[in-house]
């Protein structure tokens, strides 16, 4: 969990690229969501309830004509105060709703160069199950869902293969996925036997007792193996690097409704981590945010796509994200054809997430 940050602990070792190779928009799918950028019929977002303070009744009726005249002289301050109060009420209602929304990390989407090869590696070496697979020839892409249990109760991976694209740039912003296994050493031996790449041999975390190892899949995505007995959610973690940790913590708490489960500073290696999630770390998949001292920007490449998260209301979700400074890239509403309601957004660092209506998601799985 900690070692994954070491290769780029300082700013001097990073090289940034602002140019991104371009790939078909269908590679940005969520589970049954093809081409998030260009196939939606945009629908105006529903606004949360807003108290319009001080505007319903004319000032002359409230204070008399003389007082109203005086108020007009100082009108800027009165109107500004009312506007601030209305905004405060709006934000309070939205953030309260977010904290009580039924949310869960559904799946993570990323692109691979050889779908069959990656499926074979994940099932034979990592013990995942192929849950479903589909091919969309008219859009020139295929995807596969793999995990350790049903999609309606487990965090899973969605692999996307775009026809003719066999290599992706992972960048240096994406960190790794975490997988809990019964025996790290045995898992590493199996991976070696299958000619998998091991980048950190099994051993305890520095300063701790947890046994870990690091490996890479055929496309170069890193996985941290953590030794845990009987973990209910084996695909337990995703790590992303951010440029301002406090800003990200605040955004994910308010806009996403996540809890800050723990935070740890590692001055020796010049990085700090914050673990965010929707429940205890030993029972749920979590998001690990890493800040490397002095690094404010990362190259995201074009391999990693997004996380999908369940919600009871995509309209309220979009409104809350806007209030917290997030950018909505797909206005909330149903998808053409299947009518699943979604909304898509970017966090302050540009990492993408898609929120999916909980009831609609379950209908898709049926």
From TrEMBL:
Catalytic activity field: (R)-S-lactoylglutathione = methylglyoxal + glutathione
Sites where the protein binds Zn(2+): 158, 176, 224
Reported cofactor(s): Zn(2+)
Active-site residues, Swiss-Prot/TrEMBL: 224 (proton donor/acceptor)
GO MF annotation: an example: metal ion binding
One CC-aspect GO term: cytoplasm
Main EC class the enzyme belongs to: lyase
SUPFAM superfamilies given in the database record: Glyoxalase/Bleomycin resistance protein/Dihydroxybiphenyl dioxygenase (SSF54593)
Annotated keywords: Lyase, Metal-binding, Repeat, Zinc
CC cofactor note: Binds 1 zinc ion per subunit. In the homodimer, two zinc ions are bound between subunits.
EC number(s) reported in the record: 4.4.1.5
Domain VOC: 104-228, 234-358
GO biological process, one term: methylglyoxal catabolic process to D-lactate via S-lactoyl-glutathione
Pathway involvement of the protein, from the record: Secondary metabolite metabolism; methylglyoxal degradation; (R)-lactate from methylglyoxal: step 1/2
Family: Belongs to the glyoxalase I family.
Function: Catalyzes the conversion of hemimercaptal, formed from methylglyoxal and glutathione, to S-lactoylglutathione.
Name of the protein in question: Lactoylglutathione lyase
Organism: Herrania umbratica
Gene name linked to the record: LOC110411498
